[in-house]
Amino acid sequence: MVTxxxxxxxxMGSWWVDCEGxxxxxxxxREDAQAEAKHIAVTxxxxxxxxxxxxxxxxxxxxxxxxxxxxxxxxxxRTAS
Length: 81
Known about the structure:
Layout: E1 3-11, E2 14-19, E3 22-27, H1 30-44, E4 50-56, E5 62-68, E6 77-78
Parallel strand pairs: 1-4
Antiparallel strand pairs: 1-2, 2-3, 4-5, 5-6
């Protein structure tokens, strides 16, 4: 199954959500960007693909924080912390 990734990143002191080169933001906190990434994935994601949200960690790596079987539904699964 093809997946649409939403990536939360920090750039120039602000938090952003990137999906395939389209940027959403800026957001004041990582948590705000993560919440908005989930909202964007459900509301505006590609209906034919599963959505996943990855977020930057303090060490610069990215971790999967949320996944949904497909967009257009609020049902999602939070990954273990």
